[in-house]
Amino acid sequence: YFIHYHLGVQPDSSLEIMKAGSVLRKAKSRIWRGHRHYRLMEDCKTIAYKSSWAMNSYSTFSVADVEAVREGHESEVFLSVADEFPPERCFTLVFRGRRGNLDLVADTAEEAQAWIQGMQTLIENLENMGESQKLDQWVSDLFLKADINKDGRISFKEVRRLLKLLNMDMNEDHASSLFKMADKTQTGLLESEEFVQFYKMLTQRMDVLELFQDYSSDGQTLSHCDLEEFLREEQLEGDRSHDYALELIKRYEPSDTGTVSHCLDGFLMYLTSADGAIFNPEDLRLFQDMTQPFSHYFISSSHNTYLLEDQLKGRSSIEAYIKALRRGCRCLEIDCWDGSNGEPVVYHGHTFTSKILFKDVIATVAKYAFKTSEYPVILSIENRCNAEQQKIMAQLLKDILGDMLLKTTVDGKVNVLPSPEVSMSYQLYNMDILNHRLINHTIYNNVHFCQTMIILYNIILTNESLPSDSKVSRHKSKRNLTKELSDLVIYCKNENFTNFEDSRINGKPYDISSFSESKARKIIKESAADFIQHNTRQITRVYPSGLRTDSSNFCPQDMWNVGCQMVALNFQTAGLEMDLNDGLFSQNNHCGYVLKPEILRHSEQHFNPDRPQDRKDYCPLILTIQVISGQQLPKVNNKEGSIVDPFVRVEIYGVPSDQAKQETSYIENNGLNPCWNETLEFVVHTPEVALVRFVVEDYDMATKNDFIGQFTLPFSCIQSGYRHIHLLSKDGTSICPSSLFVHINITEAALDLCEKYNFT
């Protein structure tokens, strides 16, 4: 069963060429290039490779670790050696997380195409797999991993070793009993089908079985009426429960006879699917109004986007722009400096960070700007170039972006910010390829440096003067902005912030203010309500402190609480802050634009995040979370015999009164199927801006707990009822099939409970 599973891949000539193997040249630089033998393993999910001198010793990587495959000279390495290898023989494997790219050169264009098409097929098959198929694939990997001598059978000794790999410390007598029950042939060895039975007994979901039996009329199946009752009573699906039950039976019932009799033997399949996930599938699609002014949206924004590491000696790379764009980022930063040979360069000035060419950055943005989202991209260009190189920048922007550059205002209006949707009306919908354009901002002369923002989908180019609180580049002489670059700017200009009264009287909708995190916090502390009013009219950008040389991040939630649209983070740095950013922008089709809640869009609301109880429509909610169990949690320590002691912490981020954390107890030596059955309860006073983060850690009494996985989502996107939470790694990538099983209940809070929290 497992040997022939093959991810559901059909016979393909490209895959056959990959299985036969190819000698490919690994390009690392102009100096170092080595030949290696690469081949696709029979399981169609593993690539094996070895150097020419390594005899029969192969190393491997998983197809699942590859995010994308690129053709031609689509990497920094290939761009640096473009004159040496024809692009039709070159391709790049892009890995998830922090692993670097693999740049390969085939002997022929035909061989390169076989690997490109074959990898694309394998990646596409993986992306199209449901949770149940992913679990099957995971079990397949277990069997192959346990079968050390590769004879298609595993012994009890191999099973005991497997249990350690599964993150579980099981009584040996119990494990032996399950092994003997699964060994139908009584050979002392488990074949593939017998291993499936052993795994099912090992991981039997008693929590789901009890729930199933509570609603099953006959204890064996769920009839249409049974499922409808479950959906209505537990999942709170309301009036749609009747029709929805029929849809689910059709979608997840694995048996034809079950479908006909309207039963659901695939109850677990439903619960582990997207329909049974905690994130409401309706909120994953593009569901928000996109016709409001830009100032009414949170915009996914990056700081020092060109960096892959720290801000002192880290590497600058076009890969950083690609990764940010693929992550849904819509505001990218480009720091431009005079380069040699008249070529403007991008890097973190006056540091040891490496340099990349401005033209390569713009070419990369032009290619990848709209692969994840079709909505505007904003290029925040800090211009420190001389007049000659500014002219070169302007020409490159026009030549590379071409029709992406919007040369007139939307609807002929300059005093009103356009909406994402209105800007899209300038695209050619009758074409197969949308005609994206560049919207530009007005630029000021006589500044220390100029910051230009370009929004793509339109692309918007803005230019900002040095923020008044910035310590960066104060020693540089003033440089005038050239007419060539200034002419590319249409919509917004940076206006040094004086105070909210001046902004209210004299400010224009197209004004943009930039604040460091410390300045923004000071304003929030002194005038949070006024800051919200300001952000209903104009755009605010907040960026990390210059002291964060390690590219660490600040918590963006405080800035979102007052409606700041562009909260720029260091996308290359994993952790809580990027979890919150990914969580907020995971809704609305991951388009990088999230409509701010009404209390942050309309001035008549008079909302104050420090006093949510003053709202006219104040209605706090109680969030009750029963943390039931976990499934297939990954090991965090590769030492032999190391098993996690997991616990779950639930964190609420929002207005100050909503900030809270609670956690379960820890379960000793069980990462395979820990059960907590513990209830956590929170009062959420402003659910519109709240985010909920689920964190699983490995408890350690003596040292810091180790991170296992997390998942973050907006409070407004939570589905009530019995739900699975599919965990993500620290880098925000899936760690399937790791999950949590919870029950969610959301109710209105009684006034006496609010008084308990000092709200009357």
Automatic annotation (TrEMBL):
Its EC number is 3.1.4.11. Residues 134-169, 170-205 form the EF-hand domain. It comes from the Eukaryota. Residues 16-124 form the PH domain. CDD domains: C2_PLC_like. GO terms for cellular component: endoplasmic reticulum; nucleus; plasma membrane. It is an enzyme of class 3 (hydrolase). Its cofactor is Ca(2+). Keywords: Calcium, Cytoplasm, Endoplasmic reticulum, Hydrolase, Lipid degradation, Lipid metabolism, Membrane, Metal-binding, Nucleus, Repeat, Transducer. GO terms for biological process: intracellular signal transduction; lipid catabolic process. Pfam families: C2 (PF00168), EF-hand_5 (PF13202), EF-hand_like (PF09279), PH_12 (PF16457), PI-PLC-X (PF00388), PI-PLC-Y (PF00387). It catalyses: a 1,2-diacyl-sn-glycero-3-phospho-(1D-myo-inositol-4,5-bisphosphate) + H2O = 1D-myo-inositol 1,4,5-trisphosphate + a 1,2-diacyl-sn-glycerol + H(+); a 1,2-diacyl-sn-glycero-3-phospho-(1D-myo-inositol) + H2O = 1D-myo-inositol 1-phosphate + a 1,2-diacyl-sn-glycerol + H(+). It is a peripheral membrane protein. Its main location: cytoplasm. It is found in: Cytoplasm; Endoplasmic reticulum; Membrane; Nucleus. One of its GO terms (molecular function) is phosphatidylinositol-4,5-bisphosphate phospholipase C activity. Residues 485-601 form the PI-PLC Y-box domain. Residues 601-729 form the C2 domain. This is Phosphoinositide phospholipase C. The lineage of its organism: Eukaryota, Metazoa, Chordata, Craniata, Vertebrata.
